[in-house]
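Narrative of accomplishments. A recurring question from our advisory board has been how the design workflow behaves on a single, concrete structure rather than in aggregate. To address it, we present the structure tokens for one chain from the evaluation set, followed by the sequence designed for it. No filtering or post-editing was applied between the two.
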């Protein structure tokens, strides 16, 4: 289970600037639902200054909090000032993110750059987004990995996974990621990047496996204290129907029960939240 700062918890439960922005003249979209995280950033720019910003996201607590804080950081800035915001600053404004969640701050920065390109009438895909795909699971290119390494001084495959998600699923691309690290270290003066080992995938489960009773108690408490309040803000609700081993069956209520798109998002939200807060291999199903 990851430790979140109070700021991340606060913005996950009460995100600011959510939704479509009327009159937006700059829209940046990154990620995809099939990859687990997606962010759409809306900006209203007047006289080269960002006067308003909102977002829509499909993602975990860190993605929601990162997007929310980014919109706050953007308001009032000129386009040039906004483009200097780094993913490190986004994470810093949240008083830190778990290292496994740094890719959420990167997603915010990518969405910002995409929105500015949109405003300037430039092509949507950057050099980082085009080019050779290294990680097929998450569609991450070599150029994006190189950029993340250089901007954040990354030195291990595990760190690259944390910042870009590359390598975080089947793991088949890890050898290629290691080769990129080696290539960059070879070019770096003095061999700054020295640790090229592929670290074993981090065991996200608790050191001691949960008993069935402990799992049930934790699932119930996360649904009650985190998920329900979040859904209720949008007129939805959730009921726990059954817990069978690692499979959690829920019933969606209110607006969540009638909208197909919303249901997909809600199911993803519930599963990702339970995986973060309880156990990484839980499966959430909806009681039809
Ligand atoms: S190809 Fe990169 S994790 Fe599967």
């Amino acid at each position: 289970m990851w430790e979140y700062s109070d700021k991340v918890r606060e913005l996950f439960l009460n995100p600011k600037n959510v939704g479509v922005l009327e009159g937006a003249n700059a829209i940046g979209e990154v990620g995809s639902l099939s990859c687990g995280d997606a962010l759409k950033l809306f900006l209203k720019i007047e006289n080269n200054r960002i006067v308003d910003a909102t977002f829509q996201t499909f993602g975990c607590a860190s993605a929601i909090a990162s997007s929310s804080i980014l919109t706050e950081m953007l308001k009032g800035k000129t386009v040039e000032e906004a483009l200097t915001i780094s993913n490190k600053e986004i994470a810093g404004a949240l008083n830190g993110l778990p290292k496994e969640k740094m890719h959420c701050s990167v997603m915010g920065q990518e969405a910002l750059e995409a929105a500015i390109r949109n405003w300037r009438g430039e092509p949507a895909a950057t050099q980082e987004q085009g080019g050779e795909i290294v990680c097929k699971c998450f569609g991450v290119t070599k150029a994006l990995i190189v950029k993340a390494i250089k901007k954040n001084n990354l030195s291990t495959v595990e760190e690259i996974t944390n910042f870009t998600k590359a390598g975080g699923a089947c793991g088949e691309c890890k050898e290629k990621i290691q080769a990129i690290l080696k290539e960059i270290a070879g070019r770096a003066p003095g061999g700054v990047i020295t640790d090229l080992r592929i670290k074993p995938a981090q065991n996200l489960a608790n050191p001691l496996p949960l008993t069935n009773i402990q799992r049930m108690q934790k699932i119930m408490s996360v649904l009650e204290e985190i998920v329900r309040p979040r859904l209720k803000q949008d007129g939805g609700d959730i009921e726990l129907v059954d817990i069978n081993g690692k499979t959690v069956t829920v019933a969606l209520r209110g607006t969540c029960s009638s909208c197909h798109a919303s249901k997909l998002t809600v199911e993803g939200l519930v599963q990702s939240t339970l995986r973060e807060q309880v156990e990484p291999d839980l499966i959430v199903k909806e009681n039809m």
